[in-house]
Amino acid sequence: MTRPLDIVFAEADPQAFATLEGQIAVLADPEGGLDQLARRIDRLSRGAVRRATAAEGWAKLEEGQGVSLAMPHGLAAQTLFVVKLGRRRDPMTARKAGAWIARQMSKKPITLILPARPAADIAFGLALRAYAFDVYRTGNEEEEAPGAKILLTRPEEAAAAARDQAALVEGVFFTRDLVNEPANVLSTTDFAARLGAMQELGLEVEILEEEDLEKLGAHMLLAVGHGSESPSRVVVMRWQGGGDEAPLALVGKGVVFDTGGISLKPAGGMEDMTMDMAGAGVVAGVMRSLALRRAKANVVGLVGLVENMPDGRAQRPGDIVRSMKGDTVEVINTDAEGRLVLGDVLWYAQERFKPAAIVDLATLTGAMIIALGHHHAGVFSNDDAFADALLRAAEAEGEGAWRMPLGKVYDKQLKSRLADMKNVGGRSAGSITAAQFLQRFVKDGTPWAHIDIAGVAMPTEPGDFAPKGPSGWGVLTLDRLVRDRYES
Ligand code: BES
Ligand code: MN
Ligand code: ZN
Predict the structure, then answer these.
(1) 221-237: per-residue pLDDT in tens?
(2) Closest CA to 176 of 282, 274, 332
(3) Which atom number of ligand 1 is nearest to the Cα of residue 272?
């Protein structure tokens, strides 16, 4: 796994500031006010910090951004960052300040000299934004991950807050790594093995093989994997940190590669379909974080791992398959495979775990990107209170989410001439009809939210807290949902 930046919190020794080497950073508030430790840096540098905050450019900076001073006089450091952040700023702006530093810094050690309050959040933003996936770049194998030292007056407090955040950073990185991995490496079996390895963290992990899935009647899921050399799998990850209450269930679409199957996708951009397992990746990342921070809640994560390939044995358009629930589905388009996988896993999750609520995550439809772009995930739900809780959690974590409608009028589009339903609903409202399909596998009375992350899982531009590539969208939101609603 990509190792997060090593962050150490230590007691500041102002006497040693002059000799600190490499990169250092301090905060200044919008009016140029400095905390005690930053004042010391200012004095040592003969007023360089105050000159920076008095300069014309300072006023134009947003909070969380800063300036970089090279070779400051009076300091051994090569670079001094002065970051604009008000004393009473919210955690999200503090995270942004950390992320700004991560963008500016070179891959060398850095020392942040900070007041206590925002230190943990700054460290969090720094760690999240400093992600880099270099496993397939040859030549820099020797390079060690740079470390960050955070110096403050009372380090214990910040270090305690940072412990849970480090668990989240690991979860997010785990998700991003999985999404980055190409499909020739991250096969269904390799994916399952990586999840199995999380038993070390105290998760119960169970891997259902094709034989098991056959017995369970998961024909809809199995049909998607028929054309692949990689066997289909369902992996169940259980975290039992609570009492005997029913768990929250998280369900993820794990299509390790989506060619479209016999309804083959065009070549242009098909390489991006290595990310079609992002839903499963997010579920895995959340489970990892929950285990690492020993969350006091019961959560079960289930992922359907398949590969959608064209082949002599692949399912055809026109095939009719029977779901685990018992309904029959006419497969009009083999590229609408995610809903086939999720339908069976959703049903299995309910039959086996009687969950208090279910959230599924999937890169389900291209139409979601047309509707909301890369900034908001689409949230579909049968329960307003549950949807609100989820949207609030996303808002608090700075992950864009937007409620989308469901309704009978859309469900009609799934009528099949031959079977109980077909797997596509025509061109209009593509994301909604996909959600309607899923809802047919959700029992009445179970609060359920489907999150279509097709746009947000791998945005085309770098984000506030991620370089270009996988965002890990959802790990923070779902962890927050668990914290707010399920943790005792
Ligand atoms: N994995 C795709 C959706 C997708 C597209 C995710 C682009 C991320 C980026 C999904 O399996 C798919 O192919 N959906 C089809 C559905 C259609 C055939 C009804 C789509 O969106 O075109
Ligand atoms: Mn598809
Ligand atoms: Zn897909």
Answers:
(1) 999 999 999 999 999 99
(2) 282
(3) 9
